[in-house]
Amino acid sequence: MDLDLTLPDWLASANQEFRRSHPGEPGTRQPVHTVYGGAHLFKATTCQKLGKLAERALAEYAPDAATLALATGVPEAQAETVYTRVVEKLRREPVEDYRIDFEDGYGIRPDAEEDASAESAAAEFVKGQAEGTLPPFCGIRIKPLSEESKERGMRTLGRFLSTAGALPENFLVTLPKITVIEQVRALAEALDDFPSVQIEIMVETPQALVILPKLVEAARGRCVAANFGPYDYSSSLGITSTQQDMRHPVCDFARFAMQNSLAGTGVRMSDGPTTILPVSIHRGESLDDQQKAANGEAVHRAWKAHYENIRHGLRNGFYQSLDLHPAQLPVRYAAVYSFFLEGLEAASERLRNFIAVAAKATRVGSVFDDAATGQALLNYFLRAVRCGAIPESDVLRLTGLTPAQLRSGSFLEILKTR
User: Which of 11, 96, 298, 305 is least enclosed, having the fewest CB within 10 Å?
Assistant: First the structure.
């Protein structure tokens, strides 16, 4: 006899709640970096000036593709393509995401001075909006909402928002050094009159890592990004300063834990900065050849470290991290472009074959693909195009996908049209 088993209503409710909290990849652009700069220094033209400084650093320390490849590790076969696209990117859009920093990049100052900085930065922000000089993504980082600095953090936020008025899409408020859920909840409530403002949470403490899903929930739908702070995090675990490094095992653990907590939520993740800056040792206009060579070696060492840190993050699914200095920008784009170009041929073949047989499993070489891989392959091309690693026109040539199909962002929708 067949049993007529019924399903409880609460199962449907639970499934629907999961779908609400885990909508999957948002399909929108994610910047490849965030550039941090002290709020007292911010001007409407800051990002343009950073681009000019980045171009100057590239021209001085890597005047050709071969030099950049030797300094960083870009494969020789990609060198010319990468170099050309880096030069174009620095001229067109040197900064993708900028954070006006009232925390570590600003420091502790008298209240009157920080009030003035908040109002000045907001006024420059408004000017940048009007003149079209702001990057596609931007925002501010306030001080932590810990007991010691909560009043100052909220006061700065209020001064900035009231002066800035209407804010663009993709405007973020970054909240650092979170230890309890209530800090995020307080920020979300403070933004009730600013429905378009988004929240980025910083994971810099062991406490934040443990309660990460609850922090996202406390943001009441505003949390779109989570940034890992490797140095504060490793310091809180007792790692000495001489051993703190982006690729320390405790940092990898934290990144994997973030991925595990945020997978499917649509919250984009970003990594920390390389603190070895590409700056010259010797200054002045009358340097001898030995001093110039020493400057080049110092910059190239810093470039190499930055390149390897970025590539480490990319291999582990962190497609965004922080930049602190304009001379880091050429390496940022070189690392990202080379990463996507290296996997382009294999990804193209896999996606072509996979679409050709619709939802059936296929095998290309020794790599077996099932239906779940299709969306991941599509996401690869979406990221590659959005960051400038490959032009959109190449996708049609390499995979057979039209620009409209690519922009749909949905592998299932593509299959339906085929």
Answer: 11
